[in-house]
Amino acid sequence: METIQVKEIHQLYGRASMSVPEDSALDYVIALFGHERHLQGIFRVDSNGKFVGMVSRFDLLRWAQFKLYGGEKIKKIPANELLGLAKDTKAKDLEKDGSGSFSLKEDDTLQTALDLMISYEEDIIPVLNSEGKIIGDLSLSELLSKALEVGK
């Protein structure tokens, strides 16, 4: 699978993500996830359409746990992130540090994709063009399909 490139599979099942302006309100992003059940991630873009960060389903799980049960139930989250969960009003407040660098190019290999997804513990990753604009996403479903195909 090392020689397989992202461009070969990142559009197998269509988009599992959506893009929103970088300063989108958190309530808006939560509503999108609630109404668009196929979404796996929401990518934030700047005014030029360039990728700047991502809100994932896992980010929303952490937010929901904090809102419903408070900080004492949350493990493995640094104090500065807990503070962010308490004060969040924008989608960017919810993101993990470094989500703006979590992306692929079409000529990256699937090994690079897998390494990033495992490192960031995410099941979807944006695919960017040379200008940093989102041209698609790569989901776990697409990777699994390719792994099954290669395994036969």
What would your notes on this structure say?
With 152 residues, this protein is an alpha/beta fold. The chain has one domain: CBS-domain. The chain is built from five helices and six strands; from the N terminus they run βαββααβαββα. Strands 1-2-3 form a three-stranded mixed β-sheet. It has a three-stranded mixed β-sheet with strand order 4-5-6. Helix 4 links the parallel strand 4 and strand 5. The protein is globular and about 45 Å long.
Distance between the termini: 13 Å
Q: How many DSSP H or I helices?
A: 5
Share in helix: 25-40%
Q: Give the biggest sheet.
A: 3 strands, mixed
Low-confidence stretches: none
CATH architecture: Roll
Give the strand line-up of the largest sheet: 1-2-3
What name does CATH use for the topology?
Answer: CBS-domain
Mean pLDDT: 82
Structural class: alpha/beta
**SSE pattern, N- to C-terminal:** EHEEHHEHEEH
Strand content: 15-25%
Task: Count the domains.
Answer: 1
Going by CATH, the homologous superfamily would be CBS-domain
Query: At the first level of CATH, what is the class?
Result: Alpha Beta
Q: What is the CA-based Rg, rounded?
A: 16 Å
Counted beta strands: 6
Question: What coarse outline follows from CA principal-axis ratios?
Answer: globular
Name a few traits of the molecule.
about 150 residues; alpha/beta; globular
Architecture blueprint of SSEs:
Blueprint: E1 17-21, H1 26-35, E2 41-45, E3 51-56, H2 57-69, H3 79-87, E4 104-105, H4 110-120, E5 124-128, E6 134-139, H5 140-151
Parallel strand pairs: 1-2, 4-5
Antiparallel strand pairs: 2-3, 5-6
